[in-house]
Input
Amino acid sequence: MIEHDRAQTAMAREIREIPLTTERLLAEHDLVATVAHRIRQANPRVVVISGRGSSGNAGTFLRYLFETRAGLLVSTSAPSVVTTYRRSIDMAGRRFHRHITIRS
Output
Protein backbone atom coordinates (compact mmCIF):
# COMPACT_ATOMS: atom_id res chain seq x y z
CA MET A 1 0.00 0.00 0.00
CA ILE A 2 1.25 3.47 -0.89
CA GLU A 3 1.63 5.79 2.07
CA HIS A 4 0.20 9.27 1.47
CA ASP A 5 2.57 12.09 2.34
CA ARG A 6 1.66 15.68 3.19
CA ALA A 7 2.17 16.93 -0.39
CA GLN A 8 -0.38 14.46 -1.73
CA THR A 9 -2.81 15.42 1.02
CA ALA A 10 -2.34 19.14 0.28
CA MET A 11 -2.80 18.52 -3.42
CA ALA A 12 -5.99 16.53 -2.82
CA ARG A 13 -7.29 19.35 -0.61
CA GLU A 14 -6.52 21.95 -3.26
CA ILE A 15 -8.24 19.88 -5.94
CA ARG A 16 -11.36 19.65 -3.80
CA GLU A 17 -11.28 23.45 -3.34
CA ILE A 18 -11.25 24.21 -7.09
CA PRO A 19 -15.04 24.37 -7.67
CA LEU A 20 -15.71 26.68 -4.70
CA THR A 21 -12.70 28.88 -5.40
CA THR A 22 -13.68 29.19 -9.07
CA GLU A 23 -17.26 30.03 -8.15
CA ARG A 24 -16.09 32.66 -5.66
CA LEU A 25 -13.70 34.22 -8.18
CA LEU A 26 -16.28 34.33 -10.97
CA ALA A 27 -18.79 35.92 -8.57
CA GLU A 28 -16.47 38.95 -8.44
CA HIS A 29 -17.94 40.40 -11.63
CA ASP A 30 -16.05 43.71 -11.35
CA LEU A 31 -12.70 41.90 -11.05
CA VAL A 32 -13.46 39.62 -14.00
CA ALA A 33 -14.63 42.60 -16.09
CA THR A 34 -11.48 44.58 -15.20
CA VAL A 35 -9.16 41.70 -16.12
CA ALA A 36 -11.06 41.06 -19.38
CA HIS A 37 -10.87 44.78 -20.24
CA ARG A 38 -7.12 44.90 -19.58
CA ILE A 39 -6.56 41.87 -21.80
CA ARG A 40 -8.68 43.32 -24.64
CA GLN A 41 -6.90 46.67 -24.28
CA ALA A 42 -3.45 45.04 -24.50
CA ASN A 43 -4.59 43.01 -27.53
CA PRO A 44 -2.02 40.23 -27.06
CA ARG A 45 -1.42 37.66 -29.80
CA VAL A 46 0.23 35.19 -27.44
CA VAL A 47 -0.26 34.57 -23.72
CA VAL A 48 2.44 33.00 -21.56
CA ILE A 49 1.38 31.42 -18.28
CA SER A 50 3.76 30.49 -15.52
CA GLY A 51 3.08 28.68 -12.27
CA ARG A 52 3.94 25.62 -10.26
CA GLY A 53 1.82 23.33 -8.16
CA SER A 54 -1.79 24.42 -7.81
CA SER A 55 -0.98 27.70 -9.61
CA GLY A 56 0.28 25.67 -12.55
CA ASN A 57 -2.94 23.67 -12.52
CA ALA A 58 -4.96 26.90 -12.50
CA GLY A 59 -2.80 28.05 -15.42
CA THR A 60 -3.83 24.96 -17.38
CA PHE A 61 -7.47 25.88 -16.82
CA LEU A 62 -6.72 29.46 -17.94
CA ARG A 63 -4.95 28.13 -21.02
CA TYR A 64 -8.10 26.33 -22.15
CA LEU A 65 -10.17 29.41 -21.36
CA PHE A 66 -7.96 31.75 -23.41
CA GLU A 67 -7.64 29.35 -26.32
CA THR A 68 -11.31 28.35 -26.54
CA ARG A 69 -12.97 31.67 -25.67
CA ALA A 70 -10.50 34.27 -26.98
CA GLY A 71 -8.77 32.28 -29.71
CA LEU A 72 -5.36 33.22 -28.29
CA LEU A 73 -2.27 31.06 -28.52
CA VAL A 74 -1.14 30.13 -25.02
CA SER A 75 2.22 28.78 -23.94
CA THR A 76 3.60 27.89 -20.54
CA SER A 77 6.96 28.76 -19.07
CA ALA A 78 8.82 26.96 -16.32
CA PRO A 79 9.31 29.18 -13.25
CA SER A 80 12.23 27.03 -12.08
CA VAL A 81 14.32 28.24 -15.04
CA VAL A 82 14.56 31.59 -13.24
CA THR A 83 14.28 30.52 -9.59
CA THR A 84 16.31 27.31 -9.52
CA TYR A 85 18.60 27.53 -12.54
CA ARG A 86 19.09 31.32 -12.23
CA ARG A 87 18.63 31.93 -15.95
CA SER A 88 16.89 34.96 -17.38
CA ILE A 89 14.26 34.78 -20.07
CA ASP A 90 14.69 37.29 -22.90
CA MET A 91 11.38 39.14 -23.22
CA ALA A 92 12.86 42.03 -25.23
CA GLY A 93 10.70 43.23 -28.05
CA ARG A 94 7.53 41.73 -26.60
CA ARG A 95 4.54 44.02 -26.73
CA PHE A 96 2.78 42.45 -23.79
CA HIS A 97 4.75 41.74 -20.68
CA ARG A 98 2.36 42.74 -17.98
CA HIS A 99 1.31 40.16 -15.50
CA ILE A 100 -1.96 39.51 -13.79
CA THR A 101 -1.92 37.73 -10.47
CA ILE A 102 -5.08 36.08 -9.25
CA ARG A 103 -5.14 34.78 -5.71
CA SER A 104 -8.01 32.99 -4.06
